[in-house]
Design goal:
Blueprint: H1 28-43, H2 49-68, H3 72-92, H4 102-125, H5 128-137, H6 142-171, H7 183-211, H8 230-252
Helix pairs in contact: 1-2, 1-4, 1-8, 2-4, 2-8, 3-4, 5-6, 6-7
C-alpha cells in the first residue's frame, strides 16, 4: 500500500472558518498557545491590583477573539453571566448568615467563565482536521491526538443533541408552560435521554476517528490549511500581555 504524503500548507485553498470569516482564521497552534497562557491568568484568584488588571486583559483578549468571528450572541451571553456573577459577589457582602456564601458561587463563576469562553472559542472556530494536522505537525503522539480529536467533536455534538431533545419535548407539550410542570420531572426528561446519547455519541465518534485513518501506521495527507501569519503573530503577542502584567506585579511586590 503506497505511503500517503502531506500536502503543503501553501498549496491548500483559503481556509474556511466555521461560523465566521476567513479573515479571522488562526492557526490551531496559536489558539492552543493563547489558551494555555490566558486560562491560568483568568483562574488566578489573587486579589492584587496586578492580578486584576491581568484578568481584565485576558478577558478583553477573549472578547476580541469572539468578536473577530462576528458571533454576537455568545459575547452578549458571556457578558450577562459575568455581570450577574459580579453583582452576586457584591450583593452577598451585605447578606446575613449563610446567604453570604452566594458570593463564593459568584466568585467561582467569575473565575471559570473566561476559561469556558476561551475553550468555546477554540471549539467554535477550529475544524477537527485542522487540529489534527496541527498536532501532527508538532509531532504530538497519536495517543494524545486521537482522544483530543474525539473530545473536540464530542462537545458540539452534545449541544446539538441537547437541542434536539428540547425540540422533541416542545413538540409533545412538555415544559414549564405545558402539561408537565414539575421541575424534577422536566430534568429527568432531559437528562435521561442525554445520558443515553452520550454513550452512543462517544462510541460513534471513536469509530469515526479510526475509520478516517487516525492511529494508522501511514502518514495521512493534509488538505486543510495550517500555518502562521500576521494575525497569528498579533494574537501571540497579545496573549503575552496578561502574563506580563501579572509577572510585573509579582516582581514589584
Amino acid at each position: 500500500m503506497p505511503t500517503l504524503t502531506e500536502t503543503p500548507a501553501t498549496a491548500a485553498a483559503e481556509p474556511v472558518l466555521v461560523g465566521g470569516r476567513a479573515a479571522a482564521w488562526l492557526d490551531p497552534r496559536t489558539k492552543i498557545w493563547a489558551l494555555l497562557l490566558v486560562n491560568p491568568i483568568a483562574l488566578n484568584g489573587a486579589v492584587t491590583a496586578s492580578a486584576g488588571w491581568a484578568r481584565l486583559a485576558a478577558i478583553v483578549l477573549i472578547v476580541g477573539l469572539w468578536l473577530s468571528l462576528r458571533r454576537w450572541r455568545p459575547v452578549v451571553g458571556f457578558a450577562l453571566v459575568f455581570a450577574a456573577a459580579w453583582g452576586l459577589v457584591n450583593v452577598s457582602r451585605t447578606l446575613p448568615g449563610q446567604w453570604a456564601l452566594l458570593g463564593g458561587v459568584g466568585t467561582v463563576i467569575l473565575l471559570i467563565l473566561p476559561v469556558a469562553a476561551m475553550a468555546a472559542y477554540c471549539v467554535a472556530s477550529t475544524q477537527v482536521s485542522e487540529l489534527v494536522a496541527a498536532l501532527e505537525r508538532m509531532r504530538v503522539p497519536q495517543q494524545i491526538v486521537i482522544p483530543l480529536a474525539v473530545v473536540f467533536r464530542f462537545f458540539p455534538t452534545i449541544v446539538e443533541e441537547y437541542g434536539s431533545i428540547g425540540d422533541a419535548m416542545r413538540m409533545r407539550g412538555i415544559g414549564l408552560g405545558g402539561r408537565t410542570r414539575n421541575p424534577i420531572t422536566l430534568l429527568e426528561y432531559r437528562l435521561v435521554p442525554l445520558l443515553m446519547s452520550l454513550v452512543r455519541i462517544g462510541d460513534e465518534l471513536s469509530a469515526a476517528a479510526l475509520t478516517r485513518g487516525l492511529g494508522g501506521p501511514n502518514q495521512r495527507s493534509v488538505v486543510c490549511r495550517i500555518g502562521f501569519g500576521s494575525r497569528d503573530a498579533v494574537v501571540l503577542v497579545l496573549s503575552l500581555v496578561p502574563l506580563a502584567i501579572w509577572a510585573g506585579g509579582v516582581l514589584t511586590a
